[in-house]
């Protein structure tokens, strides 16, 4: 509730007093109304206010002439009507549905008491207001819909490089598809957080010797020890980061590969071949994109289960790992 967010409101343009600020009244149906009476009743509220006498004198004394400063109110009004303005909303949750807590999207419905609800929840609640139980679903909240249409917000990943702006209702959908979703450095002792591109650059510059380099579509030979919980792989050209995880199971060792990347990047096809004596285990799967690596709680993914005796008397296993290029 204490969260503060800045929004940009986009106005429809046009000069003078905009109809979006002061809606015109409906014309009277009385035919005996003369012209003077009509304009008296239909007069639109004026925006410009006469400054107090003392304030006006202070302005006029500032320097000569017909007064540029005296028109500050008109200039301010012209600014509001001709372009977007930035406002601060101390409680952005007022733009969320009070039932599902998702951002309100058009259409928005309201009951007779003005309580709003999104279209989906209105249907789920059988057109009953969740706040006062009055009938709902018959009246649109046009004021709220205009606010939703006007608001533009920056991506929550702006600090990591995203420059996109979108309507408030599109904020969460964009967040799930944003390529700038922050990722953490996979090394437990490092607290670096950044976009996946920043993570790749950081790892190559700071932890270069902590990774095994590989080339897409070529087999990488790895000797895996029973004491290895993970091996970090970094692609030679693109710098993409992968984690080969080795977790202990009662009946052997479970081996899988994951990619450090935003969820929107999808998985990458890979294969693992494990050999011991004359026995061969081959496994093909697809990586899962993860943003934070927790060695105590690795992600649940498809994996290769290798019997303990494959590691031999020295506790080592020879693997061949091939990761397919993502564009293929």
Detailed description of the structure:
The chain has 328 residues and is of the alpha+beta class. 18% of the residues lie in helices and 28% in strands. The chain is built from seven helices and 18 strands. The chain has helices spanning 35-42, 53-60, 72-82, 119-124, 142-150, 171-177, 196-206, and strands spanning 5-9, 85-89, 108-110, 116-118, 151-154, 165-167, 183-184, 193-194, 211-214, 219-225, 230-235, 241-249, 252-260, 269-276, 279-286, 289-290, 304-306, 316-323. Strands 9, 11, 12, 13, 16 and 17 form a six-stranded mixed β-sheet that branches. Strands 2-1-5-6 form a four-stranded antiparallel β-sheet. Strand 7 (183-184) and strand 8 form a beta hairpin. The radius of gyration is 32 Å and the shape is elongated. The model is unreliable at 11-68 (pLDDT under 50).
Helix percent reads 10-25%
> How far is the first residue's CA from the last residue's CA?
46 Å
Strand proportion: 25-35%
Mean pLDDT: 78
> SSE string, helix = H, strand = E?
EHHHEEEHHEEHEEHEEEEEEEEEE
CATH class of the largest domain: Mainly Beta
Name the assembly state. single chain
